[in-house]
Automatic annotation (TrEMBL):
It holds the Pfam family Kelch_KLHDC2_KLHL20_DRC7. Residues 127-165 form the F-box domain. This is F-box/kelch-repeat protein. It comes from the Eukaryota. It comes from Canna indica. Keywords: Kelch repeat.
Amino acid sequence: MFLSHHPFKISTFLDKTAQPPIHHPHKSPKLWQAPETCSSCPLPPSFPGSQITNQPLHLQGLHHLVIPFSAMNPTAGAEHLPTFSTSTKALKKAHLMASSPLLSPPSSSSSTSNYTSSITHAGSDQIISILYLLPVESIISFSMTCRRFRFLSSSDSLWESICRREWGSGSGGVDSLVASFPPQERPRLSWKRLYEKVVQLSSLSCRRLSCESGDFPDPRAAHSLIFFSGWLVLFGGGCDGGRHLDDTWVAYTGNGHNKVLCWKQVNSGIPSGRFGQTCTLISNYIVLFGGINDNGDRLNDTWIGEIIYDGHDDLRVTWRLLDVDVAPPPRGAHAASGVGDKRVVIHGGIGTFGLRLNDTWILYLLDDFRSGRWHQIMNVQSSPPSRSGHSLTWIAETYMVLFGGRGSRYEVLNDVWFLSIGDKNLEWKELKYELTDLPSEMPLPQVGHSATILPGSKILIYGGEDSSRRRKDDFWVLDIGAPQRSQTAGLTKTSSKLWKEVKIDGRHPQYRSFHGACTDQSRRYMYVFGGMIDGVLHPAEAYGLSFSGELYQLELVLQL
């Protein structure tokens, strides 16, 4: 997969003549207990390694050590250096150890003992510095070689560095996630435990948020919902009777613990009413493109909504039409996502005469968001087929993930595509499964779902509807990093790691499609508003179509 690093595998057949593990006949071995001691570990042996099938535990049986290419260059990846206190001299030595004959296969049995001795007698700072350069799977394998290495591999500073390396810092990264915990809990935070909870995410808690008496948004679907600095911003959509909406609303969420919100309308009439548009947050600007009005007209105008926040109790959004020379063809129900702080990507949608599109466009924002330039991506070897009602989610750097939608023959899809955007080229790649490696569970085809980003570049898929317009209420996590981590560690990629259905604790949102969803800056809290739901239309009829005006908050269950 194109997201993976290119690992440099060094075979380290450390000691083919090693003595068999020491067994204690009067003790029952426990799985994953630390194996027997190494030469520098004063602790007694405790585990017969033969009890773990195909798992090289002791250092003398560690057959593969995988080092990223960055480990071969002391200056590569310098921005991700660990935050624990390690001297520059020790760190340089660790890099040299990673790229020197120390990690090369021994040429003789005599050199084997010297090799093993060099590793086992290395200083703690040196070992931790080397561990920082390894994939997580290799660190876990290393921790099972002896008790000393298990202790070093559990270093809190090491796991803090791993979290920052894999999730980033600042907004949307580790710092925002930690800030979402109450102040009294932060000193007791275990970085390794936090990493485990995020990687093994299996449940969400959910509650319905109440609104204070007064004005609040009408029930709607196919609208836009974004999160900015503690505020929800809602625009447009369609409501009963196929009418479009042209209003902009804001509500303050606080630190995620507010149970009652107060909506406030800040604009109406500009931009013109529409549904099925996209709104993408770039810095403190909302980039709006396209949509469909209640006459059925497809639109292709581009708007900039500047978010003005004084840091207290007032947030305003001022809209203006963006000056562009050429624009993509009119459309609605397309997908969009931001790239960095100056670009927006759109794909597909429903064009004129109801035709579904498969084109990809990039908007370059210029002149401090006063003008822009649209550019169509051409001459791409392969790209997703025509569709609408799908999702496009930015996960890291210049990578995006496309999922689902309704195709040109009205079929509903559940395929996954990766989009890589370079400085001079763009590449689409489809995630394909081998017949022998089909996922044991994955979401059924769906359209009109939501896709929000979670810590660790996971994507949370919620709701949508199938080809018979039956709405859904299931939650799925797409873990793009799972095959990346496995491939980087030299392990066999298994598609079963890609998808996981998560359970909901608390009040479960109704079945819905074409709702709005977003996550806060910590990516721990998700907000869901509106959408099409099942409801009673007439007493003589069963269930039909209705619009929701409810607001839900979902929270990652991270009990540390």
